[in-house]
Amino acid sequence: MIGGIIMVLVALWVFQSASRAKVNNVLFWVAVCSVLFLTVQVLFVNLNIWIIDGMKGVEINPTYDRELTSIGDRKTGGSQSFGGMILSVIFEVLPPLAGIISVGIVKTKLILKEPLTVAGIFSGWKELFIGIKNSFKTSE
Hints:
Layout: H1 2-20, H2 26-55, H3 82-111, H4 118-121, H5 125-135
Helix pairs in contact: 1-2, 1-3, 2-3
């Protein structure tokens, strides 16, 4: 759910950045970056599951079938401690953040053709939220 909302914001971010840079094929770049975001997010979710299962000492082999509806293994143990809560937050935030960073790199290098800097990768978010805020204003 959170990843879907962030994906919409990322698509708007790329659209707004490409439009301001007067790039051809704006919608093509929005589609490419949306697919990239979704792919990176799915890969990192699977990586998180693999890490969590590895921390529990589960042997992952071709016959391994993780029961997604069972939460009995999460009621007690490491996930209820402070460190477990921190790991849960990291595992929740990591996939969307990795998607944003990957889209930011593509946006900076391929769309805007600027050098890679931290400010360049995350540029445009302030303008995006200002534009969203201004869209709720009514003119009389």
